[in-house]
Design goal:
This protein is mostly helical and 254 residues long. It has 2 domains: 1-14 and 29-186, no CATH class; 193-254, no CATH class. Helix content is 16%, strand content 2%. It has a two-stranded antiparallel sheet. The chain starts with a helix and ends with a helix. The model is unreliable at 1-23 (pLDDT under 50). Bound molecules: heme C (HEC) (5 copies).
Length: 254
């Protein structure tokens, strides 16, 4: 709901995609426009890549970049959950027990299912759903404008996958961005942060209930994809919140 309120506030300007100047601002503050021109700007990919085959054939160009993740302002009140959406986001929940989450003997907190904010990322990055598979389409969307294909972010060589072209030959390989549903090799997510209340001496206590002063963020005391990544800030490599050299030590003491 937090996000929705703010979205409404900025809606007038941004959904019409106008830019405001914004340079020296706190890294925690979100400047929605910064997503424009980044890899998550699905309305701009075609123009930048110069490949007419991407939107229009590979995925639907909804004309506004926000809608691929956020619920449009006029649908905020209803929300997406009743249509099988991830609570608070314009994306569908993965079916059933899709994910194998990271586990090890030494983990303080075990996780069975990722939280909503990480399900959001996985709704594209697990490669099981099309990148344009949103719960709500833009107001007045004409299904005749729908793309011929609705490709998924994975490296497979078929007409369901961006890998058809993104194989390292026709275009850069997309395989590395495809995380899949097996998260056992990735950093654990959606567990309570082990450094809360000095519980585990191997972790630094957070500076505030929302995380660390350098921008690393906790969500309801948990570590999520968005703890380390900020899709709204393409200034740091791989959309990280802080450079890789400082990232791990923000939390891990050894
Ligand atoms: C790839 C998915 C994605 C796209 C596309 C996207 N956002 Fe976001 N947005 C997020 C995530 C994730 C957060 C939460 C980030 C955080 O907690 O720091 C967020 C947060 C926000 C917030 C702040 C909400 C808060 O509670 O602090 C605003 C405002 C916002 N987005 C607006 C926009 C606008 C406007 C657009 C289109 C120009 C857009 N977003 C495109 C994923 C996206
Ligand atoms: C936001 C804080 C945070 C950051 C940043 C972070 N970690 Fe973690 N990491 C954790 C937490 C919390 C756990 C789970 C600890 C537990 O519950 O026992 C964890 C677990 C791990 C584990 C598994 C340990 C085990 O016992 O199985 C590895 C490996 C790891 N982190 C490596 C890294 C690396 C490498 C980086 C930098 C790229 C990093 N972490 C950044 C918080 C963080
Ligand atoms: C609507 C689909 C979609 C959603 C939702 C989404 N992503 Fe992505 N993401 C992509 C695509 C497409 C790329 C670019 C793939 C490529 O160029 O190889 C990408 C690229 C990335 C990259 C690599 C950026 C780079 O510079 O190479 C990171 C990191 C990333 N996403 C993290 C996230 C996180 C974290 C979230 C959730 C907050 C998220 N994504 C949500 C589609 C999505
Ligand atoms: C018909 C072939 C084709 C298909 C299908 C295709 N792409 Fe592309 N894409 C390209 C080419 C060619 C480029 C430009 C060269 C490059 O970046 O490797 C490109 C570039 C990109 C870029 C980089 C653009 C930038 O400016 O940063 C992203 C991100 C991307 N594609 C995502 C996708 C996603 C996601 C899909 C599936 C939904 C997809 N593409 C499907 C051919 C294709
Ligand atoms: C503890 C911090 C941390 C968490 C949590 C985290 N990442 Fe990352 N991510 C990184 C770092 C560091 C890199 C770059 C080094 C690497 O590839 O491991 C990265 C790389 C990526 C890449 C780009 C791969 C490439 O090399 O182009 C994507 C996509 C991505 N992460 C998505 C996600 C998603 C989705 C989640 C949640 C399921 C997530 N990340 C959780 C730290 C994190």
């Amino acid at each position: 709901m937090r996000i929705l309120g703010l979205l409404t506030a900025v809606a007038a300007g941004i959904w019409g995609a106008t830019a405001i100047g914004a340079d020296d601002i706190d890294p925690n503050i979100i400047i929605p426009e910064k997503i424009l021109g980044s890899k998550h700007d699905f309305t701009g990919l075609n123009r930048r890549a110069g490949v007419a085959a991407m939107p229009g054939l590979a995925f639907s160009d909804y004309g506004t970049p926000c809608i691929y993740c956020h619920i449009p302002p006029d649908e905020e009140e209803i929300g997406s959950s009743f249509m099988g959406g991830i609570p608070g986001w314009n994306r569908f929940k993965q079916a059933g027990d899709s994910f194998s989450t990271y586990d090890s003997r030494t983990l303080d907190n075990k996780v069975r299912t990722p939280s909503s904010i990480s399900l959001l990322c996985l709704s594209c990055h697990d490669g099981t759903m099309a990148v344009d598979m949103t719960v709500f389409k833009p107001d007045g969307w004409d299904s005749a404008e729908d793309a011929a294909l609705h490709l998924k972010l994975n490296g497979a060589d078929d007409l369901e996958s961006c890998g058809k072209c993104h194989n390292g030959n026709a275009a850069h390989s997309i395989a590395i961005k495809h995380i899949g549903t097996d998260l056992t090799n990735d950093h654990p997510i959606s567990m309570e942060y082990a450094g809360l209340n000095f519980k585990d001496q191997d972790f630094r206590p957070p500076d505030t209930p929302f995380g660390f002063n350098n921008g690393i963020k906790l969500y309801d005391n948990r570590v999520e994809c968005a703890t380390c990544h900020n899709v709204h800030n393409p200034d740091v490599k791989l959309l990280l919140r802080v450079g890789a050299e400082q990232l791990c030590e923000t939390c891990h003491i050894k």
